Amino acid sequence: MITNLSRRRFLLYGSATVGTSILLKACGTAPSPQPSPSAASPAATGAIKVAGVYTVPIEQQWVSRIHKALDAAKGRGDIEYVYSENVTNTDYERVLRQYAEAGNQLIVGEAFAVEKACRAVAKDYPKVAFLMGSSGKPDGKNFSVFDNYIHEPSYLTGMIAGGMTKSKIIGMVGGYPIPEVNRLMHAFMEGAREITPDVKFLVTFIGSWFDPPKAKEAAFAQIGAGADVMYAERFGVSDAAKEKKVLAIGNVIDTQKDYPDTVVASALWHMEPTIDRAIQAVKDGSFKAEDYGIYSYMKHKGSSLSPLGTFESKVPAELQQKVKKRQEEILAGTFTVKVNDMEPKSTA
């Protein structure tokens, strides 16, 4: 087991397990896109050129939130946006440099496994703004960082799980035991304990960011050990829950539409506050190295608890009231969800 591993340190494990080829979107075979004949130039529209560099498919939960926010900005005409997905760690620096050379004014991506290389590229291109997912600190004048601090709605989904479990055993399947995952799991566990103090947890890490079959098998094992509610930190867990007719709690995105009888609620991440602030800073010429992590907090609308939807009538009214009250306290600042980045352990 990897103990308290940050994304900066799991280079050897590789974050792009789904392929080694670089898929360059909206730009042919090179990361220097040509505008369509009908498109106005950035100078004419006020749009800035933005590139995204991702180590996993854009369908993966975490990256999909970044992509969604950038796509929305593109739709408003604020930016011209191109991206590469499935970029291997060993190729990441090269792709960053190509996008910087192509005149992109803002580059968004993940520095977790390639911190040293990303920071070196930022130093070589001081006029380019870099906004990177990172466990580290801002650097120089143009290297800003962000992270998915959605521990607050994770706590609320934990409360729901604690109130819905009958076996008092909850299964949790994650990618890697790194701070970005650990803090969400701990918040979820604390929320569940608020409702059911003697609830037990089964915790498994699959050693991959995108391996739905492996996550599904891990979930099957936990359900077989008595878990009747599953925390789906990875894709594949909700599939197992659906097949075994137990409940699931989602993470980062709302998948209830795909699992209407399985996914009770989800802790949602909204990257729009982070992305929009960075875009405006680049436009204003005020972009600087800073930590954007706080803009994922609920008070900044960077995260939220999903609607109960198909489970509106299935979650007891008393439990819903407790969750609502706690949410109001979080937003008012009278209740603080603790950030615990240590690796969570099974208690069952």
Summarize the structure.
A six-stranded mixed beta sheet has the order 1-3-2-4-5-6, sandwiched between helices. The protein has 348 residues and is of the alpha/beta class.
Brief descriptors of the model:
348 residues, alpha/beta, Rossmann fold, 2 domains, six-stranded mixed beta sheet, 35% helix, 18% strand
Walkthrough of the structure:
The protein has 348 residues and is α/β, with parallel strands linked by helices. It has 2 domains: 7-148 and 271-300, Rossmann fold, CATH 3.40.50.2300; 151-268 and 303-332, Rossmann fold, CATH 3.40.50.2300. It is 35% helix and 18% strand. It is built from 10 helices and 12 strands. It has helices at 42-45, 61-75, 89-101, 115-124, 151-164, 179-195, 212-224, 237-244, 272-284, 317-332, and strands spanning 23-25, 48-53, 79-85, 106-110, 129-133, 143-146, 169-174, 200-205, 229-232, 247-252, 263-269, 303-305. The strands form 2 sheets. The protein has a 6-stranded mixed sheet, with helices on both faces. Strands 8-7-9-10-11-12 form a 6-stranded mixed sheet, sandwiched between helices. Helix 5 crosses helix 6 (179-195) and helix 5 packs antiparallel against helix 10 (317-332). The protein is globular. It starts with 22 loop residues before the first strand and ends in a 16-residue tail after the last helix.
Strands, helices and their partners?
Blueprint lengths: L22 E3 L16 H4 L2 E6 L7 H15 L3 E7 L3 H13 L4 E5 L4 H10 L4 E5 L9 E4 L4 H14 L4 E6 L4 H17 L4 E6 L6 H13 L4 E4 L4 H8 L2 E6 L10 E7 L2 H13 L18 E3 L11 H16 L16
Parallel strand pairs: 2-3, 2-4, 4-5, 5-6, 7-8, 7-9, 9-10, 10-11
Antiparallel strand pairs: 1-3, 11-12
